[in-house]
Specification:
Layout (H helix, E strand, L loop, with lengths): L1 E2 L21 E3 L5 E4 L30 E6 L2 E5 L8 E6 L4 E4 L8 H8 L4 E4 L5 H4 L8 E3 L3 H7 L5 H5 L28 E2 L5 E3 L4 E6 L8 E5 L4 E5 L6 E4 L6 H14 L5 E4 L9 H14 L6 E4 L2 E6 L2 E6 L4 E4 L5 E4 L5
Parallel strand pairs: 1-11, 7-8, 8-9, 9-10, 14-16, 15-19
Antiparallel strand pairs: 2-3, 4-5, 5-6, 6-7, 11-12, 12-13, 13-14, 17-18, 18-19, 20-21
Helix pairs in contact: 5-6
Length: 345
């Protein structure tokens, strides 16, 4: 068990840009338009504010870049609505310590926001090591990680064309905050101070969280589980919107196994807290994800081409965004599963 206490000092791929995709908004069973398909940069500003946020009061710690909401007592969503990723980082506050699950794009100063919300010592943990979840890591002294090669590589910092596109005018609904210059935007190096393992228990005082390793979206993807409260923080393995499964580091076979693991948890959950778009999702959507993903990977559903070598499979509440040459699994004669790359469009 890992106990986060005040006196304890822990020691311990670039994504494709899919601008110009021709998709419309997708509607959930309720008829409410919950998200746009496949990274539709041209219309995301028009979807703000998303209706689901109206159920919560904006916290005084909000500023010109972050919107903060206390979703449950001691559980704060730190939302970046003005950038097209619409990433959500989560501050979970116990009686003795606090945990920040993801640190956002690195565009605004998330450290300053966290300092307004708690005076307790804060440990940062990333749901995975894509740029929009590690951007603020450098602002924190204590960072725990599963420390896989992908995690360690990203901790060195980087600047890529894809990352610079994240602060281009098309990706923003308002100017960059403070004195940030777009050309200077980068993931700054950070130091991982401790290692996490699958099943580790993190005691914040009054709240205990379990680390759930769920590789697939990336090799180092994790979720956090509060079994007592029935809360799951799902990272990018599930959210309401186009789930990105096209990066070079994505492993669809591993993702399928991880989704099955999440689906097994659904019955004991009261809420899923995703890392993009909306703050709370119905745990039953994890079962829907498992069912639809199996249909996709076994070739029982045809995709829609969305440009730039990507295809999308759209369902009520979410979609799966994949590479056009990597979205199926074939069963060989021995009954084992193997991935298949096929161009069928």
């Amino acid at each position: 068990m890992i106990t986060i206490r005040p006196n304890l000092l822990f020691a311990c791929a670039a994504l494709l840009t899919l601008a110009g995709c021709e998709t419309g908004s997708r509607e959930a069973d309720s008829g409410e338009a919950t998200y746009a398909g496949a990274a539709d940069l041209g219309s995301f500003c028009d979807r703000l504010p998303r209706p689901k946020w109206a159920a919560f009061d904006k916290h005084a710690a909000s500023n010109d870049w972050f919107e903060v909401y206390e979703i449950e007592p001691g559980i704060f969503s730190i939302y970046e609505p003005w950038q097209w990723q619409e990433v959500i980082s989560w501050l979970i506050v116990g009686t003795d310590a606090a945990l920040l699950f993801d640190t956002g794009n690195g565009i605004g100063d998330i450290g300053a926001v966290v300092a307004e919300l708690t005076k307790l010592p804060v440990t940062a943990i990333n749901s995975h090591s894509h740029f929009d979840h590690i951007g603020g890591n450098h602002r924190f002294d204590r960072i725990l990680s599963v420390s896989m090669p992908f995690s360690l590589e990203r901790a060195a910092g980087f600047q890529t064309e894809e990352l610079l596109a994240e602060v281009s005018p098309d990706a923003l609904c308002r100017p960059l905050p403070g004195d940030l210059e777009a050309a200077e935007h980068r993931v700054r190096p950070y130091t991982i101070s401790g290692k996490l393992e699958d099943g580790d228990s993190i005691d914040l005082g009054g709240r205990r969280l379990e680390v759930v390793l769920i590789p697939g979206h990336t090799p180092d993807a994790i979720a956090l589980l509060d079994r007592e409260a029935g809360f799951l923080w799902s990272g990018d393995s599930f959210y309401e919107g186009p789930i990105w499964l096209f990066a070079p580091e994505t492993d669809l076979e591993a993702y399928r196994t991880s989704v099955a693991r999440l689906a097994e948890l659904a019955e004991g959950l009261t809420a899923v807290f995703p890392a993009h778009n909306t703050p709370v999702a119905d745990p039953q959507l994890l079962l829907e994800l498992q069912e639809k993903l199996d249909l996709v990977l076994t070739g029982q559903i045809e995709p829609e081409a969305v440009g730039d070598g990507a295809v999308e499979f759209t369902f009520p509440g979410f979609s799966l965004l994949m590479r056009e040459d990597y979205y199926r699994i074939n069963t060989d004669q021995a009954g084992s599963m193997k991935l298949c790359c096929t161009r069928r469009l």
